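User
New here, explain this?
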Amino acid sequence: MNHQIRLFATLKDRAGANQIAIDLPDDATVAALIERLASAYPKLAPSLPTCLVAVNREFAFGATPIRSGDEIALFPPVSGGAGTFPEVFRIVDRQVDLNEIIAAITLPTTGGICTFTGTVRGVSEDHETTQLFYEAYEPMAVAKMQQIAAEIRARWPQVQGIALVQRVGRLEVGAFTTLVAVSAPHRDQGIFEAARYGIDRLKEIVPVWKKEIGPSGEEWVEGHYRPTPGDVAESE
């Protein structure tokens, strides 16, 4: 079988392309894919031991089978449902309208909304950043945002609206990068905890990466979290 493999962030840079092709036997697994890629694409070899694999927009592991027609993506560790309550899941390449997002998750019974917004930081302890460039594996990113919302509802059932928004593209210092917003009838019904959980979880399992751009050059920033089978969304 011939498969087209989508690449993101560091792996895309190493390969010099956002998609590559590989031939695999009919009984191939993810482990076999990684082994074959190391041989066929030596430039990818340094990133393969720590890369993550998605098959059909879900995390895959060594024994996961690969079948004809599967959508396969490789990327480094990462730095909505139609229910009763409103949910917003977006990957956007434009300025985020905070008021519009808040209005979207506000109901007549809403009494409190907690928001977290990430911004581009220009000065850190050890370096200066002039811009950030964000890239996302968009179909899977939206699916994992939906999963995070489901996890929030399981932990804080009184939560009403949930919004998860990630910007992509080149962003200047001070620009919004990420937005998490959670609403409920009262402030003591989990909205603070849920917003914190939302941003922490987004940085673990949503396939989004950033490249820091500054006076000393450009560098992709990779995370350290390694997804486990427990991070796979439960089938409905």
Summary: The first strand starts at residue 2 and ends at 7. Helices lie at 9-15, 30-40, 98-104, 138-155, 191-205.
